[in-house]
Amino acid sequence: MFIVLLHYIQPLPAIDPHMQQHRDFLDRHYRAGHFVVSGPQMPRIGGVILARNLDRLQLDAVLAEDPFYRERLARYEIIEFNPSKFADGAEHLFAPAN
User: Fold this and answer.
1) Nearest to residue 24, comparing CAs of 13, 35, 10?
2) Which pLDDT belongs to residue 98?
């Protein structure tokens, strides 16, 4: 499992015109079972994606599809981890997609 931290490297007026394409990218990968949760950082300096069911090379290929990457609007920090402890009832959120 991976935590992907997006850090904007352009000002928000350059980010906003690409937001719908970025959301479409996210939707494709939610449907594919790759993304568990995502959202903006607060304050709005970037975003966070929790990804699963991919190895690192696959994740890199997926992120290369992101309009924020293609347009050089964000850089990515990737943290791989193995979830081993869960809040009651949360295990299903982190199980591999079927």
Assistant:
1) 35
2) 58
Contact 4, 52 (CB under 8 A): no
Which structural domain range is residue 11 located in? 2-94
Q: Checking DSSP bridges between strand 46-51 and strand 74-80, what pairing results, if any? A: unpaired
Q: What is the tens place of the pLDDT at every residue in 63-86?
A: 999 999 999 999 999 999 998 888
Count structural domains, the chain: 1
Kindly list the distances between the CA atom of residue 42 and the CA atoms of 7, 39, 73, in Å, as whole numbers in the listed order: 12, 9, 18
The enclosing domain of 62 has a CATH number of: 3.30.70.1060
Which amino acid would we find at residue 51? A
pTM of the model: 0.90
